[in-house]
Amino acid sequence: MSDYDVIIIGGGPAGLNAAQVLARARRRVAVIDGGNPRNAPAEGVHGFVSRDGTPPGELLAIGRSEVEGYGGEVLDGVVRAVRHDRTVELADGRLLGAKRLLVTTGLTDELPDLPGVRDLWAIDVHHCPYCHGWEVRDQRIGVLGTSPNSAHQAELLREWSDDVVFFSHENPPDADALARLSARGVKVITGAVSRLSTEEHRLRGVELADGTVVERDTVFVAPKFVPKDRILVNLGCAHGKDGLVEVDSFGRTSVSWVWAAGNVVDLRAQVITAAGDGARAAIGIHADLVGAGE
C-alpha cells in the first residue's frame, strides 16, 4: 500500500491547486481523478484572470503538469471507498493510505427535463451569466423558468442584451418579480414550454405548449446543483441546514482528518473560487500536520 501525507479526491481546479500548494510545501500528495470534469463541454474558462478563455481540458493539463513538477502525483482512477482507518480503496483494487484527506469531487448539474436542453448544453443552452453572458451579448436571449431564481437570472442577463424574454414555464413570477422584470425591459411569456426547437443541432427557438415558437439565439436555464458528496456522507461528515457538508474557514469537516473544498461544499463556486478554496484548504491541512508533529 502506498502512503501519503495527503490524498486529494477530485482533480479539478480545487484539487489541483491544493495539490500544488502541498507539493510546494514538500508534502507527499496524490490526486485521484476520475476524468469527468463538470465544465468539460464548455469552450473556455472565464472569470479567471490570466486564464480567460482557456479550454477546460487545457487548464487541467497545465495544473497536472505543475503538480507533478513539484513532485506530486496525479492518479487516474475512481475511488470505491474511504475507510475510517484512512485507507482509500480504488475501483481497480489499489489501496492508498493518507494522514489527511481532501475531497474536491464537485457537483452534478441536473438539467431540466425538456427536449433539446441536454442536446444543446454548453452550445446554445447555458446557466451562468458571468460565465457565458459576454459570449452571447446582443443576441436574442431566452430564460426558462425552471427555478425560483430564474426571474433574477433574467434580470441579470438584461445587462448583456436588449432582447431578453422570460418564459415563466413552471415558475411564474410574483408581482414584485414581474415589476422588476418590466422595469428592466424583460418580456414575460406565461405558460408551459414544451421543448427547445432546433435546426442542425443549433437553437431555433423556444416552443410553447400551444406550438408557438419564439425565436431565440440562446437560452439560459437553472440546473439543480447536486453535490457529489458520497464519500463525505459515508465518512459521517456533518451537514448544515442548507444540506451541504459543513466546513470551517479552511475547509475542515466534522471528521478531524477530512477536508472538503470547491463545489462539493459551495454550489456557487466558479473555477477561480474553487481554486482559491483548494489553496486555503491546503494551507489548513499543512498547518494541521505541522501542529500534530506529522
UniProtKB/TrEMBL annotation:
It comes from the Bacteria. Keywords: Flavoprotein, Oxidoreductase. It catalyses: [thioredoxin]-dithiol + NADP(+) = [thioredoxin]-disulfide + NADPH + H(+). Residues 4-276 form the FAD/NAD(P)-binding domain. The keyword Oxidoreductase applies. Gene3D superfamilies: FAD/NAD(P)-binding domain (3.50.50.60). This is Thioredoxin reductase. It comes from Amycolatopsis magusensis.
